[in-house]
Structures are given as structure tokens and as C-alpha cells.
Amino acid sequence: MADILTQIQDELDMLLNQMQSSLAYIKNRAPPANIAGQPLLSSFAEYEAQATQTTQSDPSQQQPPPPPSQDEFLADIKTLSKDLVLKEQQIEYLIAHLPGLKSSEKEQVDRMKELERQLEEVEEERKEAAKERDLLVRKVEDKIIGVGSVG
Questions:
Q1: Confidence check: pLDDT of 149 > 60
Q2: Same structural domain for residues 109 and 39?
Q3: Range of 145's domain?
Q4: 122 domain-assigned
Q5: How far apart are CA 65 and CA 102, in angstroms?
Q6: Nearest 10 degrees: Cα torsion 119, 120, 124, 129
Q7: In whole angstroms, what is the distance from residue 73 CA to residue 68 CA?
Q8: Is 71 found in the same domain as 14?
Q9: Residue 139: inside a domain, yes or no?
């Protein structure tokens, strides 16, 4: 499993993708609003399609899907909103569990010094164990050579 910072970064990437997708959905699928003096189009996607059709009259181009009903659109917006809120809560949870968040800078520095001291102790133990291992290997080799020369 990745560390918390990597998880937060991944979750932020997903949140931004969800936001972009939500905005694209709203831009392309929102039902029209009546604006005085403006032609009524069913969606921005239809407006773009109409503008494209006037520049190139190619009947093989795919028409945009029909806009959803007002109820469908509102339900979709509600679902997209819930997804965004859920993702944001997941990010908040990860941030709340970052190590050292509840301790002061001095406490963190003291903790790092203590860990460094422990690391030095463990390193000394490792060096001693390596010396002991080398000594035992030499003893075993000497015994093997001694047995070989007796026979």
C-alpha cells in the first residue's frame, strides 16, 4: 500500500477528474434557460453542433444525444455532487491521519532525534553481530581445515 501522501495525491487527481467530468456534463447536458432575445437551443452541445453544421454540412457527423429531462438532470447533478463530497471527505480523512499533525514542531524534532539515536544503537548492534558472524565463520573454517588435515 502506498504512503499517505501518495494516497492523498491520487485522491486529489481523482477529485479533479471528477470535477472536470461534472463540469463537462453540466456544460453539454444542461437544459436550456430562456434568455430574452436569444434563440432557444436544447443545450450547449446542440449549439456547438449547429455552429459546426453551418460551417460544414456533413450529414455523417453524429448528432448529440437528446438532453435529459429536468428531473433526470437534477438527479444526475445530485449524484455527481454526492460523489464529489464523498471524494473530498476521503481526502480529509487521509489528511487527518498524516503523522505528526497533532504534535508541535519541537515534539517532531525531539522524536526525530530519538529515532536517530535508536538507529545509531541498532547500527552498532548490527556491526557487533557482523563481527561475531565473521569470527564464527573463521572458527568453522579452521575446524573444517583441521578435520581435513587429520584425515
A1: yes
A2: no
A3: 104-150
A4: yes
A5: 52
A6: 10
A7: 6
A8: yes
A9: yes
Whether 60 maps to a domain, the answer reads no
The grid coordinates listed for 106 are: 519541537
DSSP state of 38: S
Structure-derived torsion over alpha carbons of residues 138, 144, 147, 148, reported in degrees to the nearest 10: -120
- CA 53/CA 40 separation, integer angstroms: 17
Q: What is the pLDDT of residues 88-121, one digit of tens each?
A: 999 999 998 887 777 888 888 999 999 999 999 9
Q: CA torsion sign, 34 to 40 to 43 to 45?
A: negative
* Cell triple for 32: 436550456
- Nine-digit cell string for 2: 502506498
Are 21 and 41 contained in the same domain? yes
The full length of the chain comes to 151
Q: How does pLDDT run across 17-67, given as a tens digit for each residue?
A: 999 999 999 988 887 777 788 776 666 666 677 667 666 655 565 666 777
